[in-house]
Amino acid sequence: MASLLIRNCRRYDAPPTDGHSNVLVQDGCIGWIGAGEPPAAPEQVLDAGGRLLAPGFIDVHIQGAGGADVLDATPTALAAIAKACARCGVTSYLATTVYKIGQENRHLEVASECIGRDLGGARLLGIHLEGPFISLRKRGMIQPDCLADPSPSALEAILARTGDGLAMMTVAPELPCGLEVVRALADRGIVASLGHTHATYEQALAGFDAGINHVTHLFNAMPSLHHRDPGPLGAIFERSDVTVQAITDGVHIHPSVLRLAFAALGPSRFVTITDGMQALGLPDGRYVYNGIPYETRNGAARYKDGTLIGTAVGLNQMLARLVNVTGCSEATAIRTATENPASILGLAKKTGAIQAGYDADMVLLEEDFTVYATVVGGRIVYRRESD
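Now predict its structure.
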């Protein structure tokens, strides 16, 4: 693998008084960081032109992009998603999808087979299943044939399809045997995430005690907070050991509520996601998810009945909106899509930061979070054509 020198960059975590840095990549990892000449001559040089260098973004909740969907069940579709992700600064992602009861679910096998493959863009880290053990009342865009009652045997059937590829599962702990499934997921090192739930405050706490340590798209597909009936949100805000996903497009969460949540939770508990659909990276228009038509308008995706089902907004722009709404620093916003998801997935010792020895997954950004270049494993997989 060719060595790469990223020259004249501004590190996202460096004090403003620091000068520009150079980063040498060798054998797919960050080998050296400094202000002078690297210890070895590189085979390729990328002049950053003073742009911001950040760790590559990690999207733990994306169903599709670039005209493709995980449900397409082909390596070509996963590669299209990977390439669309790279254009948004995403260097790794979880293929987020559903489990169809009584069907072959070939899409899960294909996704598992593609983990670790070169897809020409972002790395595929694993699978995030929304369901099938979720609440019918809070299913949102997930169809009834993708729901099931929790049981050890049902979980084993799913694991038979995903193999070692299942990294995260969204569950509703209030369902019968829901806590048993949560414990089984935790025992296997799979992230159990609370979501699409109608849990009470007490049921949510029980879920956290059983092993849930993450929350799927905060506020969406769950009961609202009430001062006499706090529901799952009351439990979420109380538990400092629980991290949350948030869609920061300004539609899924009102800006005022986003500011309140970000301040109350703190940046370390926050993970910015896209909940991206196949329309991500494409113009507003009409598309189809799981056989049902939907429309994107200003980046928000909705079924014909108005049900909000996801977004077509890239993760780089989600971070720009987070900065705009909350007033947090660029570095703080970036951590919600790098260090935080890496930690949740157990990858914090190898990715999510710009340090010697870490994976050379990085992104060069303009001041408005427009992506200039994306590097995966030390290879430039995207560079803006105008430059």
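The CA atoms of residues 61 and 344 lie 13 Å apart.
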